[in-house]
Specification:
This protein is α/β, with parallel strands linked by helices. Helix content is 51%, strand content 16%. Helix 10 packs across helix 11 (236-243).
């Protein structure tokens, strides 16, 4: 049943892109409005049938906005910084300095790539140790120049290859968490797609943590969980149900601060609306956080994560 939903979404998305390519005009705008009504009707028909696994599919959906899309839409004067000053640059994590409403900020985020060639180049958004060490370098730069830090999370997890392990993957992630915990600048985190395992957590220790409505955030992927528990990935849907990895689950558990709503059908259908929503949440958060003493922020940041305990239904 849900396969039919996603197939219809794809067809409607193709219509939207085709009309947008024609440029704005009275006729085109009317057709776009018709398509939007179709999207809304389709979404309302299936919204209560979306399972946790369906949310996983949406979180991984092709052409969903990635970090550089948010940077381009929300920020100005973007200057990307490369390299960890130890080994190499890691394209799976992008980092740099930009302007947000006349305020200089530092930005770090996972980047998956929008086509096959770019996805291979960026290792499908799976960072290696040098990616996290680059992130730590930018975090320390943000602290030095009093720049609020904004991170965008979208990764299936840190890369588990032999080379990554040889270069200290676990240590790099632990170091990133250590630095974020005591970083003397406000931190806003937005989970935009997949928040997978320690690879996501390494950039997620913030003062404010938000998730897009159809994003996921979990200690392990459903496929990985199923492979461990049942020795087969065929149980991935059951694993997803038990992992409680949706934005609604995480909000209920108190792991995140709020859910950023997505347009009908998902973020990939109308990304410009998602950009506006994320911009508002970041703006509100920075106004609030920048008014607090840094010692207070660090104390509250630590208390927040220390308060996360066992959960039992």
């Amino acid at each position: 049943m849900m396969e039919e939903y996603f197939n219809k979404l794809d067809l409607l998305k193709e219509k939207i892109d085709r009309y947008k390519a024609l440029g704005s005009s009275t006729g085109v705008d009317k057709e776009l409005e018709k398509v939007r009504k179709e999207v809304i009707e389709l979404y309302q028909k299936y919204r209560n049938k979306l399972s946790r696994w369906d949310r996983v599919i949406l979180a991984r959906y092709p052409n969903r906005p990635y970090t550089l899309d948010f940077v381009k839409a929300i920020f100005s004067d973007w200057v990307e910084l490369h390299g960890d000053r130890f080994f190499a640059d890691d394209p799976a994590i992008v980092a740099g300095i930009a302007k947000f409403k006349n305020r200089s900020v530092a930005i770090i985020g996972h980047q998956k790539g929008s086509n096959t060639k770019e996805r291979v180049y960026r290792n499908f958004g799976q960072p290696r140790p040098e990616g996290y060490r680059k992130a730590v370098r930018i975090m320390q730069l943000a602290e030095k120049f009093n720049l609020p830090l904004i991170t965008f999370i979208d990764t299936p997890g840190a890369y588990p290859g032999i080379g990554a392990e040889e270069r200290g993957q676990a240590e790099a992630i632990a170091r990133s968490l250590e630095v974020m915990a005591l970083l003397r600048t406000p931190i806003v985190v937005v989970v935009t797609g997949e928040g997978g395992s320690g690879g996501a957590l390494a950039l997620s220790l913030g003062d404010k943590i938000f998730m897009l409505e159809n994003a996921i955030y979990s200690v392990i992927s459903p496929e990985g969980c199923a492979a461990i528990l049942w020795r087969t990935q065929d149980k991935k849907e059951e694993a997803a149900e038990n992992l409680h990895l949706t934005s609604y689950d995480l909000k209920k558990l108190g792991i995140i601060d709020d859910i950023i709503p997505e347009p009908p059908g998902g973020a990939h259908m109308y990304p410009e609306e998602v950009f506006l929503s994320v911009e508002k949440y970041i703006d509100k958060s920075l106004r609030e956080l920048c008014e607090k003493r840094i010692e207070t922020l660090i104390q509250q940041r630590g208390d927040r994560f220390r308060s996360i305990k066992f959960y039992k239904e």
